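User: Predict the structure for this protein chain, please.
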Amino acid sequence: QWYQRRVDITAGGSLLKEGSSRRIKGLDVSAREHILSKIASDLQDNERSYLNSSAMDETVVVRCPEIVGSELEHQIYMSCTVPTIYKSRAIRKSNDIIKATHGCELFSALKEGEEPDKSSTVAAFCGFQTASSLLAAKDDTSNEATKETNPVLH
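Assistant: Here is the predicted structure, written as structure tokens:
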């Protein structure tokens, strides 16, 4: 096969990051492990579907679904403060993976070198813009206004 599967299991036998953390009250480790296994399973199905499809690009390096699942679950976990939001975001992520699978597309996080930007992921989950994007937009509009009022300066 043209790629090799590597799975790095932590000392406890789980890919769960910060498994002992009590960041979200009411969310136990077994619930997080269940969600991690669901996301990893969906990613494995996506990988299989993509590799068996005619749309497969042999130049794309596919990342290990188990490790990607661990990273995605951890991003969701770090962006939440209550169990219901955590579970709804995990279900949304799972549905996104399933949607890509039905379209015979490789889920973007599985592509080597295409890790999601954490700040944009959190912003998309919360429905707000990052401060840097707001400042950049403000700078752009103020520069355009200066050009209009003082064309000699620019």
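The chain has a mean pLDDT of 75.
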